[in-house]
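dumping this here so i dont lose it again. seq + smiles for zinc ion
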Amino acid sequence: MHAAIFHAPNDIRFAEVETPKADDGELLLRVRAATICGTDMRIYNGQKTKGVRTPSIIGHEFAGEVVDVGRGVRGFAVGDGVSMDPVIPCLKCEYCKQGRENVCANRTAMGYEFDGAFAEFIRIPATGIASGNVYKLHPDTSWEQAALAEPLACCINGQENAEVGMGDSVVVLGAGPIGLMHLQLARVAGARQVIVSEPNAKRREVAASLGADLVVDPTTEDLSACVKARCDGIGADVVIVAIGLPVLVNPAMQLVRKNGRVNLFAGFTAGDTAVVDPNLIHYNEIKVSGASALTRRQYEKSLRLIEAGVIAAGDLITHRLALADINEAMQVAASGEGVKVSVVHE
Ligand SMILES: [Zn+2]
Ligand SMILES: [Zn+2]
C-alpha cells in the first residue's frame, strides 16, 4: 500500500510499504478520510515528540471501510463504515478508574504507538476494538465528517473542563479548526454570546458565518475593550485559548470576570513557559484548566452531534490533497490559508 512515512521532523516520505493484515481480534480498514490535526503539524515541525515513533505513520483523525475482520471480532463485517476514538485507555489505572481515561497512564493511540491514518489501509488493534473505541457510522454521515469527530470530542473535553454553559459569554482566541469547533459547541451549550479573536481575515469571515456574535482582529482592535463592552463591563465568563502561544495566557486571564474560567486548550511547544500574574488567579478566583485528548463518552457525544447535523463539521474542510502530496498538505495546513485539510487517496 501507499503510505506517508514520518522519518523525522520535516521529513515525511510517500512510499510503498507492506499492507497490514487483520490478526486475531483486529480490523483492517481502507482509509476513506484522514484529516490533518494541529498535533500532526506539531509533530511534523518537531514541536511535539512525546510518544512519536520513527519511522511510523501518523494521523489519528480518520474514518474508513472495514475490508478485513480478524478472528474473534464480533459486531463488524466487511463493508461497514466506521470511525474511531484513537486514544485507547488501559481501563485499569487510577485515571481510568476515576473516569479520566483521556489522561490514562498507559494509554496507547492510533498515529502514535499504532500506525496511523496517512496511508491507504490502517490496522485497528484488538485492544481498541475490545474497549469499544470503534463506532459504526450512520449512513448519512460522510467519511470526512466522521473523521472530525475526534477533534470535536477533544473540544468537548475542553468545554466540559471550562464548564461552558447556558447564558455564558464565551471568548475564543483563535479561529482555526479548533477555535471554530469551540465556537459551535459554545453555541450548542447555550452561550448567550461568543466572541472570536483571530488575526487572519479569512478565518474571521468563517467565524462570523458560523455564528460568532463578534469577531475581533486583535492586531488592529483592542480585544480587552471589545470584550468588556459586551460583557457588562467586567469581562467574559469563559475564555478558551485555541492557539498555543504562551504570551496569550496572561491576557486570557485578564479577559475573564472574577470567578471566570480560562481553558488552555491548545498545546504549547515543549519547554515553553509563560509569565503570569498570580494575583489574577488569586484575587479574581479564576479557574484555569487544561485539555488533553478525549474520552470514549466524549467521542460518542461528538459523533452524535455531527450525525444530527448540530455541528457543521464537514464545512470546516477547505482543502483536499492527495496522500502523495503529504508535505504540501502539511504546509497548507500550517499556512492558515484554509481551515481543515483532508488527505485523500487517488
Ligand atoms: Zn486531532
Ligand atoms: Zn488507564
